Amino acid sequence: MDLGLRNKVAIVTGGSRGLGRAICLGLAAEGARVVVNYYRDAGRGIDLRDEAEELVKVIRAANGVEAAAVPGDISRGEEVAALFDQAESVLGPVDVLVNNAGIWPTAYVKDMSEEEWRSTIDINLTGPFLTCREAVRRWLGSSRKGRIVNISSQAAFHGSTTGHAHYAASKAGLVTFTVSLAREVASQGIHVNAVAPGMMTTEMARDALNKGTDQYLKRIPLGRIGDPSEIANVVVFLASQRASYMTGATVDVTGGMLMR
Question: Rounded distance, CA 156 to CA 139, Å?
């Protein structure tokens, strides 16, 4: 099935590893030109440039499509604008935005600092707001259509019992933001949907799974942890023209944990 993504330009935030990497590979396999956004913070010793550039090489070699690694802290408006500027200068006008970047820190509410709360909301909720705002402004300003896919979580509906209340709150907010934005821009041909993944075999979940895989398996009717590529397949579909009659939806990809 042709998804109509060939030569489309897609930005994937947090695209260098985990689910983001799988999404980048999935989009590239359909012929999309992919901007692999990555995070770097010299003060904290974080720089995912090498991983992002390695992925770009893989995409070019495997799929014969263009890709670019572009840094940017999505929680900062000026860096979001610079991300879009660089993406457009290298690959052309953006057609698809996938808001994948996020953090999953652990702290029970009684022990949680204001900084832990704020940083989680900044990255997981304010970041998607800023990237969506930038994309929508550009699309409306040039009378272009576009597609947005926001990565939420089953925690948005179940909450958390393992010290991730701030994460769950940010992802619940993202679901409602997705619906609101979809209502605002539907008439302009901009589609906004979300995906709610369950547990996946990613770097983010590694420690939690090492400590207690069984407790997660008990909650998953399919009886196994998901592979990032399985979630990426749904994201790629929502980013495509085949999802032409969908907007404002949040799709469950949890192995049956939600069953809404």
Answer: 29
- Comparing CA positions, the residue from 37, 28, 114, 40 lying closest to residue 70 is 37
Task: Report domain extents, the chain.
Answer: 9-253
Helix (H, G, I), strand (E, B) or coil at 174: helix
Distance CA 192, CA 247 (A): 5
User: Residue 143: what residue type?
Assistant: S
* pLDDT tens sequence across 86-105: 999 999 999 999 999 999 99
Distance CA 220, CA 208 (A): 15
**What sign results for the dihedral spanned by CA atoms 208, 150, 97, 120?**
negative
Report whether 88 contacts 35 (CB < 8 A).
no
- Enter the tokens of residue 165: 């209340």
For the chain, list the strands marked E by DSSP. 9-12, 33-38, 40-41, 46-47, 67-71, 96-99, 146-151, 190-197, 250-253
pLDDT tens per residue, range 63-82 = 999 999 999 999 999 999 99
Angle 66-50-201 from CA coordinates, rounded to 5°: 90
Encoded amino acid at 57, one letter: K
Please state whether the predicted TM-score (pTM) of the whole model is above 0.70: yes
* Active-site annotation, residues: 167
Residues 9-253: name the CATH superfamily. Answer: NAD(P)-binding Rossmann-like Domain (3.40.50.720)
Average pLDDT, the chain: 94
Indicate the SS3 state at residue 37: strand
